[in-house]
Design goal:
Helix 1 packs antiparallel against helix 2 and helix 2 runs antiparallel to helix 4. It is rod-shaped and about 70 Å long. The chain contains four helices and no strands. By secondary structure, it is mainly alpha-helical. The protein has one domain. The longest helix has 37 residues.
Length: 101
Amino acid sequence: MAEKIANVYHSAMGATKETLGRAMGNEHLVASGAAEKAEAARAALVAQQRAQGKVDNAEGHATTATTTAGATTAGATTGDRPMEAEGHVQQASGDVNRIIN
């Protein structure tokens, strides 16, 4: 939540700097504001991708959840190979998204 607040703050500050820079004819301030807004947008996208990675990972773990009998997955236990494979794919997708973000 703090990250989201920081991104909103930096986006607003960047827009303010751009507006003031244009009003004062200060190109450096305009550029600084644009850069701050762009960084806030990038950080928000990274946070969104990181969150999606956690969701994918959790869904993958749920789909491949182990049973009380041991390490067999829910899909393997029921003989549902596509379900098992889907769980592994979602889990791997979540792992990749978390790593790259």
